[in-house]
Amino acid sequence: MDVVYSNVKWFAVAYIILFQTFFILKNIITRKKTGVAVNAANRDVKNIVLCFVLVFSVSIFSLFFPAFYARVIPIDVMKNSAGVLIAGMVFLVGAFILALVSSIQLGASWRVGVLEHQRVDLVDEGVYRFCRNPYFVAYFMQIAGFFLIAPSVILLMLVVISLLYIHRMVIKEEKYLMDLHGTTYAEYCRRTGRYLPKFRIKEKCLR
User: What is the pLDDT of residues 30-81, one digit of tens each?
Assistant: First the structure.
């Protein structure tokens, strides 16, 4: 267990560095390619960034500092399980792969938040054939992964708040795309789920 726990600590640090480096490079490359701003930098974006910073910080501090972990009310039934730790790492690896693939497939349509004055192409190929927001699904997986490697009541509260803010942004982005692409986006919504592939679940698009 000690070996697994030690590996998880440094894995989490390396993950954050790698993911944030990729995110920054994607923004720089897309801005250079399109010649326009790609980050809305509005309240929604800032709230989500703050949530991620808090989730990352609480998770990392919990892993490295037992005294801190004790203060954020650890969930004992989960914290001593090697299976839970490994599951957390699996979630994080899956999140990174999905984020990498989905952001690359977005190409020049990549944006951080809604920039209503800009027009972006609708991407419905690759992983976007299966659901409309695979990059945000990667965010969900990432947040869940950080909770699993350092489960605590405080971190769980931050996870819930983060998911609500992300969902709020998704709703706004879908409304923007509906206004922009009209019936084309409506048909895309009919074929795909918001977060999961659509099978039997009926889901209305925003108008």
Answer: 999 999 989 988 899 999 999 999 999 999 999 999 999 999 999 999 988 8
Helices (H), 35-132: 43-64, 66-71, 76-79, 82-106
**Structure-token match 């709230």, residue found:** 47
Please answer whether residues 170 and 194 qualify as being in contact, where contact means their C-beta atoms are separated by less than 8 angstroms.
yes
Domain total of the chain: 1
Structure tokens, 132: 């409309």
Retrieve residue 151's tokens.
Answer: 């489960």
61 contacts 55 by C-beta, under 8 angstroms: no
What number of residues does the chain have? Answer: 207
The CATH number of residue 49's host domain is 1.20.120.1630
28 falls within a domain:
yes
Tell me, rounded to whole angstroms, the distance of Cα 20 from its chain centroid.
12
Whether 196 is covered by a domain: the verdict is: no
Pair of tokens at residue 199:
């099978």
Taking a C-beta distance cutoff of 8 angstroms, is the pair 114, 180 a contact? Answer: no
With 0.85 as the threshold, say if the pTM is over it. Answer: yes
Residue 183's domain comprises: 2-191
**If you search the block for the tokens 């899956």, which residue do you land on?**
94
Instruction: Give CA–CA dist 207/194, Å, rounded.
Output: 15
Q: Hunting for tokens 């790698």 — which residue is that?
A: 18
Q: Residue 113: inside a domain, yes or no?
A: yes
Domain-located, residue 147: yes
Tokens standing for residue 188: 């895309």
